[in-house]
Write a structure and sequence with these properties.
mainly alpha, 7 helices
């Protein structure tokens, strides 16, 4: 029984304390995403007008309904006129997704 508890604790370690850091994600977001997506996740109207595109509000149910994997794909591969953010990788990518989740309405 004691061995089972130890094994369970060890197996859970990756889940404890290693969650993506939304605060760090905001820093990456501010540097890489904010220009187009705005400070609050609501699109920058000047960019929308210039690019002749509607940028989804990141707090919308459409965006928030996407899985983390789907969000990561959009960030890294781009979508429509949104360019791929190839420099956002690894833990930074997880952190940006964690930050985007904080924008949920």
């Amino acid at each position: 029984m004691r061995l089972t508890l130890v094994l369970a604790a060890v197996l859970c370690l990756p889940l404890i304390g290693f969650a993506a850091d939304a605060k760090a994600g905001k820093t990456v977001y501010d540097a890489k995403c904010k220009n187009c997506h705005g400070a609050t996740g609501a699109a920058n109207p000047a960019i929308e007008k210039m690019m002749k595109v509607e940028i989804k509000n990141l707090s919308s149910s459409d965006v928030q309904g996407m899985s983390d994997a789907e969000l990561k794909k959009v960030i890294t591969a781009g979508k429509g006129k949104m360019p791929a953010m190839k420099t956002v990788t690894g833990s930074s990518l997880d952190e940006v997704v964690a930050y985007v989740r904080t924008l949920k309405k």
